[in-house]
Each structure stands twice: as structure tokens, then as C-alpha cells.
Amino acid sequence: MTVIAAIVHAGLAAAWVGGMAYSLFVVQPKLRRYFGPDEDGREALTMMIAAGNRWKVIGLIGVIAATGAFLLWLTSSPLWIHLVKVVLLLAATAIFWYVSWRHWPRRVFATSTELPAFQRRLRLLASTMLALTATAFALGIAASHL
Prior knowledge:
single chain, 146 residues, mainly alpha, elongated
């Protein structure tokens, strides 16, 4: 059971980190190049890609948290490393909440002059979320070797 929980936990964490990295470093730059000055077209496709993903990510976070708690109960590695992972996951979740329920609705109704600021802010927030989750992932790997 421990091995299955560890595989699910690490696999979903890797999927979350990988998905964010792919979006930030592959999809978003390609959309900018493809659409060029057509901000409306790029924004429409970005919204279509993002639509419906909120609850999938919330489910993913929930399973990562649940399997992490289960593994913590079974582990003998130092508690501090897992507490740091919890803080990182909570911070990433808080940013995700803000983006999903505050930033994105405002961005949808932004004027063309407001949109560049929303795009910059989202890149910053997504980069921060990626750094938090990647650090938690790396700490998880380190914890298994302590």
C-alpha cells in the first residue's frame, strides 16, 4: 500500500509541476509567437485551454495532500522536511485559489489596455506556483533519501 501511495503522490506531483512548466515554457511562448499582435485571438485560445481545469487541479491538490498525509503517517524521515512541503503546498494552493477565483474573472472582463498587466501578473503567479511545487517535489525526493 505504501508503494502505491508513493507512486500516486509522486506521479501527481510530477504531473502538476510538469504541466505548469510545459504551459509556462512551451505553450504560452508558442501562443505569443503564433498569434503575434492578435491579442484577442491569443486570449480566446488561452481561455479555451484553461476552461474547466479548475476542479481538476483542485482534485489533484486534494489527492497529493491526502497521499502525502498518509505517507507522513508511515514515514521515518525528519518531520521538518514534510512540514516545509505542507507550507509550500498551502502557498501554491493559495495562489491557485487567487488565480482561479479572483485574477481570472477579472482578466476575462479586462479591457485591452488592462490585459497586458493581467498577463504579466499571471506569468509571475504561475512562475511562483511552479517554484513552490517544484521545491516541494525536490524535498519529497530528498526526504526519501534521509
